[in-house]
Automatic annotation (TrEMBL):
Domain ATPase F1/V1/A1 complex alpha/beta subunit N-terminal: start-end pairs: 27-91
PROSITE patterns referenced in this protein's UniProt entry, alphabetically: ATPASE_ALPHA_BETA
Keyword terms, alphabetized: ATP synthesis, ATP-binding, Cell membrane, CF(1), Hydrogen ion transport, Ion transport, Membrane, Nucleotide-binding, Translocase, Transport
Name of the encoding gene: atpA
Membrane topology classification: Peripheral membrane protein
SUPFAM superfamilies in UniProt: C-terminal domain of alpha and beta subunits of F1 ATP synthase, N-terminal domain of alpha and beta subunits of F1 ATP synthase, P-loop containing nucleoside triphosphate hydrolases
Documented EC number(s): 7.1.2.2
Chain positions of site Required for activity: S358
Keyword Lyase: no
Localization per Swiss-Prot or TrEMBL: Cell membrane; Membrane
Chief place of localization: membrane
Organism ancestry: Bacteria, Candidatus Gottesmaniibacteriota
Name of this chain's protein: ATP synthase subunit alpha
Length: 496
């Protein structure tokens, strides 16, 4: 009996000195899961953007850190995860495998192949979220990135390291401009990355087929988060594409990245934020939706030591409304925009670029001198022509100067039209724009302008090949070259 009393008193003494503690290490449990977003308790030391592992090897990433729980987006089939499922922290930030073997492949935002080809071997990993390079590490945009489209390269030039927004209604040719630009980089030492966000799988397959048929997949990587994929994958897709671009930029390469499109990206982020019960603001978007795109697009730059990333984000407008929340956000982040208009598109002007509302804020410094010389006043003249043409509809008789300006504007508009997937080399663009801006097309019937362009470029290639090669090499027109070109145009017109 005394032994029992002694044991009891010893136990009581130990219990009095015991303090209860909850062990919060690298294991937690799912408290709640819905619409691809899990709320987890017990992972107090988790970092933002850290990968977590659910049962069955399904991965997630922490994006909401609260005092007593963590919000994580599930990067896979969330229907296989239930309340009470165990979650493990991995002590690894969300990153994507990068290597040269990605070129020519179609992958998902986690780096897994979608094209049915062999597994992609990668040794290096780049974080999907990364702080953009500072001012000291950047250098000004001075090298051109040619799109192969006369209307853009002459009036809204793009430079390597620039961010140029392509904006317009649905079905106005936004993706077509991006694909033309990718096709035009063939043989120009510029790698291309096309990020498809929320697109139909059939549309992505069509884009892959188009790029293959034009030999452009040899310098292109496609990152696809299709419409059928969870919002979590659509949310990380552009960041994954940008991480791949940064890998090649750090190796000294020039990269062009297309985000098609950031409207659907904002929708995916809104969906995730609403499920996480973050406070919503205008149009139910969370308060940090501006930062969502600014931290992505600021990563596009031209490094002092290294390569460059040129970004072409795409935004879809509703009924031509440029004052919407997401359009105004992205316009203020980028270095200019190419605005495509439905009315122009349906009237047969393609690419349907509204010259008045389109601008390139830094690309002018990158434009080749030959194009600057011939297209200096083109944008202003076309703007004036549009105003005069609108006014002329209500005027019964016009003075000769106004009529001449409208006639030339009609011919220049016709000249700037271009078929899809037929990019033109910039030297040839400069030759034909020279003919148009100097009035050599004024007496050519409007219906024969396209034929004049085709035959004139053939004539220059065959009869004046040495002259064309010299301009291509020099990148500018000397006074002697201008006189020679004038003579060549006059000689051709006699035969046309």
């Amino acid at each position: 009996m005394p032994k029992t009393t002694k044991l009891t008193s010893e136990l009581m003494k130990r219990l009095e000195g015991y303090t209860s503690t909850v062990s919060v290490g690298y294991k937690g449990v799912v408290k709640e899961i819905s619409d691809g977003v899990a709320k987890i308790s017990g992972l107090a030391t988790l970092s933002y953007s850290e990968i977590v592992e659910f049962p069955g090897g399904i991965l997630g990433v922490a994006i909401n850190l609260e005092e007593d729980e963590v919000g994580a987006i599930v990067l896979g089939d969330y229907l296989k995860i239930g309340t009470g499922s165990e979650v493990k922290g991995t002590n690894r930030l969300l990153s994507i495998g990068v290597s040269e073997s990605l070129i020519g492949r179609v992958i998902d935002p986690l780096g897994f192949p979608l094209d049915g080809k062999s597994k992609i071997s990668t040794k290096n990993y780049y974080p999907i979220e990364k702080i953009a390079p500072g001012v000291v590490k950047r250098k000004p945009v001075t090298a051109p990135l040619q799109t192969g489209l006369k209307a853009i390269d002459s009036m809204i030039p793009i430079g390597r390291g620039q961010r140029e927004l392509i904006i317009g209604d649905r079905g106005t040719g936004k993706t077509a401009i991006a694909l033309d630009t990718i096709i035009n980089q063939k043989g120009k030492d510029c790698l291309c990355i096309y990020v498809a966000i929320g697109q139909k799988a059939s549309r992505v397959a069509s884009i892959v087929s188009t790029l293959n048929s034009h030999g452009a997949m040899n310098h292109t990587i496609i990152v696809a988060a299709n419409a059928s994929d969870p919002a979590s994958l659509q949310f990380i897709a552009p960041y994954a594409g940008c991480a791949i671009a940064e890998y090649f930029m750090d190796k000294g390469k020039d990269v062009l990245i297309v985000y098609d499109d950031l409207t659907k990206h904002a929708w995916a982020y809104r969906q995730i934020s609403l499920v996480l019960r973050r406070p919503s603001g205008r149009e139910a978007y969370p308060g940090d939706v501006f930062y969502l795109h600014s931290r992505l697009l600021e990563r596009a730059c031209r490094l002092s030591v290294g390569g460059s990333i040129t970004a072409l984000p795409i935004i879809e407008t509703q009924a031509g409304d440029l004052s919407g929340y997401i359009p105004t956000n992205v316009i203020s982040i980028t270095d200019g925009q190419i605005y495509l208009e439905s009315d122009l598109f349906y009237s047969g002007i393609r690419p349907a670029i509204n010259v008045g509302l389109s601008v390139s804020r830094v690309g002018g410094a990158a434009q080749i001198k030959a194009m600057k010389q011939v297209a200096g006043r083109l944008k202003l003249d076309l703007n004036q022509y549009r105003e005069l043409a609108a006014f002329a509809q209500f005027a019964s008789d016009l003075d000769p100067a106004t009529k001449a300006q409208i006639d030339r504007g009609n011919r220049m508009t016709e000249l700037l039209k271009q078929h899809q997937f037929v990019p033109m080399e910039v030297t040839k663009q400069a030759l034909i724009v020279f003919a148009g801006t100097n009035g050599y097309l004024d007496d050519i019937p409007l219906t024969r302008v396209a034929q004049f362009e085709e035959k004139f470029l053939e004539y220059m290639d065959s009869v004046h090949r040495k002259f064309v090669t010299e301009i291509r090499k020099e990148g500018k027109f000397s006074d002697k070259a201008i006189e020679e070109l004038k003579k060549a145009v006059i000689d051709f017109k006699k035969k046309f």
